[in-house]
Design a protein that fits this description.
By secondary structure, the protein is an alpha+beta fold. Helices cover 30% and strands 19% of the residues. The protein has three domains: 110 residues, no CATH class; 101 residues, no CATH class; 200 residues, no CATH class. The longest helix has 25 residues. It is globular and about 80 Å long. It starts with 13 loop residues before the first helix and ends with a strand.
């Protein structure tokens, strides 16, 4: 038997590599000026002022993640930088720190995304410390603590919680919790009397806190950074309609919306339209709950038809600089539930070129559309659309048009103009 056929090769974590590839090298001064959440997207090393050195170290760490390289391999890749900075002898710990802290950070950011995708079936997360003589007492004090995945505990204590921190998180199902007789905690950690792992002696009481500079959640902040940013300067050039032959049963491939089977039209109840008086936070929370997210800070990764991943969280509707909800969504807030349902189950998905920004940079867009109507009406009451642009931006729009404001035919005429490009997906009826 050929042993090569049964050789198992370790596979790199794609999410960890994606996290690392999205980092931008900045010097220490620039890094300090960044907001805590933005620091997750940046890479710096104290003492490296030249971008060439930064990029060299960052590239070497990227190779370590991609190929599963060791600390020794990493040292060989940045040998010139090590010699130039004098990171040898008693200062060799610097290289160890750079390697272990950054690799662990990338791994934990990727793991956070993986755990969020299965949070519905494995909603309980347990903090796991290595529990050896090198484990910091305050980190050991967290070992074994279990909290729901969306508990504020993870906003503060998701690892790594310090330089060279080796802590991680495991997931558990409700059945596992019940079978082991475990219960999730509800209160945040308070004062503890940690045990010194080297001596076994009980240490004086102290508050449990992450190490300085690690008070956050690298996974959550990374997902927020991956959330598409809203753009307003968008131009859709005139585009032909293309369909792959035989892909769709209808002929032509773009049947008029006016004759659309009502089963393709989203039937909306009065209760599905949110009150305009609701706060923006409440309206966004209603959007998130459509995806099974229980709180305003929860997030998940979904895949829209066509195989494109999208991060769903509050940052779709927030200014990432100020952290405030966008005022431009005031008129669209009542239709948040309908927008969520359109993203989850669009009638059609179109791919088309689009120009963004004042310089009209040409990128691609994915437009998801669906018509809706109220139960007592035979006419189309409005439409929803969500456009993912260039993978890093989005331009979402919803509209509800009572007859007094706009006719059903006007809605259909407007939406027909948006059905351009390559048809990637159409809902089928069973």
């Amino acid at each position: 038997m050929n042993p090569e056929l049964h050789k198992i090769e370790p596979l790199p974590m794609a999410e960890a590599q994606s996290f690392w590839n999205g980092k931008v090298p900045v010097d220490s001064a620039e890094f300090k000026r960044l907001a805590d959440s933005a620091k997750t997207r940046a890479f710096t090393v104290s003492g490296l002022a030249r971008n060439g050195q930064l990029e060299s170290v960052q590239a070497a760490l990227g190779e370590a993640l991609a190929n599963g390289e060791t600390l020794g391999d990493f040292k060989k890749r940045i040998r010139e930088t090590i010699l130039d900075k004098g990171w040898t002898g008693k200062r060799a710990w610097r290289v160890d720190n750079i390697y272990r802290t950054n690799v662990q950070t990338a791994f934990q950011a990727g793991r956070y995304q993986q755990m969020k995708t299965v949070a519905k079936t494995r909603p309980y997360w347990r903090y796991v410390a290595v529990a050896d003589k090198r484990t910091r007492p305050t980190h050991m004090a967290l070992n074994g603590k279990i909290y729901p995945h969306d508990h504020p505990f993870w906003d503060q204590f998701y690892p790594p919680n310090g330089f060279m921190c080796r802590c991680t998180v495991s997931t558990m199902s409700a059945r596992q919790m019940e079978g082991k007789g475990l219960k999730a905690e509800t209160d945040m950690p308070d004062l503890v009397e940690p045990i010194d792992p080297k001596t076994g002696q009980r240490l004086p009481a102290r508050p449990v806190l992450p190490d300085r500079g690690f008070n956050g959640n690298v996974g959550r902040d990374w997902l927020a950074g991956l959330s598409p940013e809203n753009v307003t300067q968008v131009t859709y050039p005139a585009t032909s309609t293309l369909c792959r032959k035989g892909q769709f049963s209808e002929d032509p491939c773009k049947p008029p919306l006016a004759g659309l089977d009502r089963r393709h039209i989203l039937q909306v109840k009065d209760s599905d339209i949110l009150a305009k008086s609701l706060s923006k936070e409440s309206q966004v929370l209603a959007f998130l709950k459509e995806f099974g997210l229980p709180s305003i800070d929860a997030s998940k990764v979904i895949t829209i038809p066509g195989g494109y991943p999208v991060v769903v969280d509050k940052w779709l509707f927030m200014d990432k600089t100020s952290g405030a909800f966008k005022s431009t969504w005031a008129d669209k807030g009542p239709y948040m539930r309908l927008l969520a349902r359109t993203i989850q189950n669009p009638f059609e998905v179109w791919w088309a070129p689009v120009e963004i920004g004042k310089h009209k940079r040409l990128v691609y867009s994915l437009r998801l559309i669906r018509l809706f109507t109220l139960p007592e009406s035979k006419d189309v009451g409005g439409y929803c659309s969500f456009s993912l642009i260039g993978g890093r931006h989005w331009h979402g729009a919803t509209a509800f048009a009572p007859k007094a404001d706009r006719s059903s035919q006007a809605i259909l005429d407007y939406l027909e103009k948006q059905r351009a490009g390559v048809l990637l997906h159409r809902e089928t009826l069973t």
